[in-house]
Amino acid sequence: MKLETKLFLYGVLFFVPVGLIYAAWSGGEAVGTVGIPLVGGLVGMIGAYFALLSRRIDDRPEDDPLGEIEQGAGDQGVFSPWSWWPLVLGIAGAVTFAGLAIGWWLSYIGIAVGVIGLVGWVFEFSRGQHAH
Fold first, then answer.
1. What is the distance between the alpha carbons of residues 96 and 91, in angstroms, rounded to a whole number?
2. Where is this chain primarily localised (predicted)?
3. Residue ranges of the chain whose pLDDT lies below 50
4. Structural domain boundaries of the chain?
5. Per-residue pLDDT tens for 35-45?
6. What stretch of H or E contains 121?
7. What's the predicted TM-score (pTM) here?
8. C-beta separation of 96 from 107 below 8 A
9. In the 3-class helix/strand/coil scheme, how is 15-36 assigned residue by residue?
10. CA–CA distance, 52 with 46 (Å, rounded to integer)
C-alpha cells in the first residue's frame, strides 16, 4: 500500500497549488477555484486512508522492490462466475443517464432497474448453485 499512499498524497501536492494558481490567473472563477482544491482534498483523504491501512496490513509482494513475480501467485479474490448482474447494472446506468437527456421518467425506470440489479448482485451467492 506504500505506492498507492504516495501516489495519492502527491496528488495533494499537485492539485492544491494548481488550484491556487488557477484562482489567481482566472480572477477567482468560482467553479475551478473551488473544485480543483477540493480534488486535492479528496485525494488527500484517500491517501490518508491508505496510509492508515498500510500500517495495519502486512507488506504485499508489490511493496517489495526486490520481489519476484511468483510471490504474487495464488488467489487474488472471490469473483462470481457467470454473473449477469454487472451487465444489468451497466444497462441501468446507461438508461438512467439517457434519461437526463430524454426525460426524467426514463431516469426513474433506470434507477428502479439499477436497484434490482444491485440487490441481485449483492445476494448472488445467497441462492442457487453458488449458495454458501
1. 8
2. membrane
3. none
4. 1-64, 84-123
5. 999 999 999 99
6. helix 104-122
7. 0.58
8. yes
9. HHHHHHHHHHHHCCCHHHHHHH
10. 10
- Please state the φ and ψ torsions of residue 130, each to the nearest 5 degrees: -105, 20
Is 19 exposed, middle or buried (CB count within 10 Å of its CB: 0-12, 13-18, 19+)? buried
Up-side HSE of residue 7: CA atoms within 13 Å toward CB? 6
Which pLDDT value is given to residue 127?
67
Q: What angle do CA 118, 123, 127 make, to 5 degrees?
A: 140
Give residue for cell 446507461.
94
> How is residue 132 annotated by DSSP?
-
CA dist 37 and 120 (Å) reads 38
The pairs formed by 16-22 with CB atoms below 8 angstroms and a separation of 24 or more are: 16/40, 16/41
Nine cell digits for residue 70: 511468483
User: Measuring CA to CA, how many Å separate 16 from each of 3, 19, 46, 48, 68?
Assistant: 20, 5, 15, 16, 37
Give the residue carrying C-alpha cell 482566472: 26
Task: Please tell me whether residue 79 adopts helix, strand or coil conformation.
Answer: coil
CA–CA gap between residue 117 and residue 111 (Å, rounded): 10
